[in-house]
Amino acid sequence: MVRTGEFKEEKSANDFADHLKTQGFEKARSTFSEYDGTIKSTGPWQIDVLEIDPEEFQGELTNSLAKDKITGRETVSSMANRNQALVGINGGYFVVGSGDGVPGDPAGISVVNGQLISEAIGDRTSLILSSNNAEITNTSTSLKVETKSGESSVIDGINRKPGLIRSCGGVEDKETNLPKHDVTCTDPDEIIEYNAYFGDTTPKGNGFEVLLDEKGEIIETYSERGHRIPANGSVLSATGDQADWLKNNISAAGTLSITRTVTADGKQVKNLANLDIIGGAPQLLDEGKVEIQAKEEGFAWSNDFYYHFAQYRHPRSFAGIKENGHILFITVEGRNPEQSIGVSFFESAQILQSLGAVKGMNLDGGGSSAMVVNDKLVNQPSDDTGERPVSDGILILK
């Protein structure tokens, strides 16, 4: 990054940036220096902090999916109201445009009511909720289908559009199997599992599908995609070479065995039944020290992207765990210089440190940042249209 000049008025800066573009510097742009996380600032900042003492609070922390399904979005206020929650805060990243998948689909791991409904992105940091406790871990998933004869294959994803992997981090993806934030990788040869959380039917298209009941017994097979999802069963929907594999390795009647493995910090989670998991990333704090896993979790794939996403000051939402087990949820308003300028990844970690956290992680931010307490939105979202509909939320129930 090269800076040139300081300007008292935005128009003068924009005019000079336009001039630089005519000289061949296509990425030239003006920026408000208070948003630039590489310089010192004294704010202003508007920060909302919620702290939970699990020994005192006997309610429940849970993950709410927008409208209780993958497709579509919903505001945190609406989710909190619908579930009569004490508190709601926005959750993880999600697909926005149809060119990147199914709008509203969580981009990363999601477990709701003990059921895995979205696969992980590599080994990213996630928030695990159980009753009134929370844990921050690096979480991954492994999915497999096996026939009666012992033939097996990878299941590439759950409840998403085949061939489009938002933020990458999957299996045999193009251009990378590593996490790459806000980039959509592709894979023409996939098996995707769908359950009732996705909706009524699978996406239409060429390929092969197998409808399964709750025991994994084959109900029906089809030579194209786009069929009903059994209420208590699932559908395996395959494309490309994986469609050929699925078609050639099953009989018209039989049973398929599906294995879904979730690991947290390298250890298999043996009982998902009582857990909710929300994706996010990256890790911000570990053992009380600033340890931002930006490169490992796909946020530093280019200097330009990292600068604008991580070093630049934006509205943020993040979570932390204190040494005594207390749970922290924090929102910081931004993009409003008179009220609050937002924070960088590093400044988010510093806030967590100042509050006594020993472990911390980032959640979705920007216009998605929202905190609702007792049916009242306590922060001011940055979008001109107001509170943004998101894919999921963290709810605190009575």
Structural descriptors:
mainly beta, 26 strands, globular, 8-stranded antiparallel β-sheet, 12% helix, 5 helices, 398 residues
Helix content: 10-25%
Largest sheet: 8 strands, antiparallel
Rough outline: globular
- Total of helices: 5
How would you classify the quaternary structure?
A: single chain
Termini separation (Å)?
49 Å
Strand content: 25-35%
| Structural class label | mainly beta
Overall pLDDT score = 96
Low-confidence stretches: none
Q: How many strands appear in the DSSP assignment?
A: 26
Rg value: 22 Å
How would you characterize this protein structure?
With 398 residues, the protein is mainly β. 12% of the residues lie in helices and 34% in strands. Strands 4, 5, 6, 7, 8, 16, 17 and 18 form an eight-stranded antiparallel β-sheet that branches. The longest helix is centred in the N-terminal third of the chain and has 13 residues, at 10-22. The protein is globular, with a radius of gyration of 22 Å. The mean pLDDT is 96.
Task: Give a short synopsis of this structure.
The protein is mainly beta and 398 residues long. Helix content is 12%, strand content 34%.
Task: Please write out the topology.
Layout: H1 10-22, E1 47-52, E2 60-65, H2 76-82, E3 87-90, E4 110-112, E5 115-118, E6 125-130, E7 133-146, E8 152-154, E9 157-158, E10 164-168, E11 179-186, E12 191-194, E13 205-212, E14 218-225, E15 234-238, H3 240-248, E16 257-264, E17 267-268, E18 276-279, E19 283-286, E20 289-290, H4 303-311, E21 316-322, E22 327-332, H5 345-354, E23 357-362, E24 371-373, E25 376-377, E26 392-397
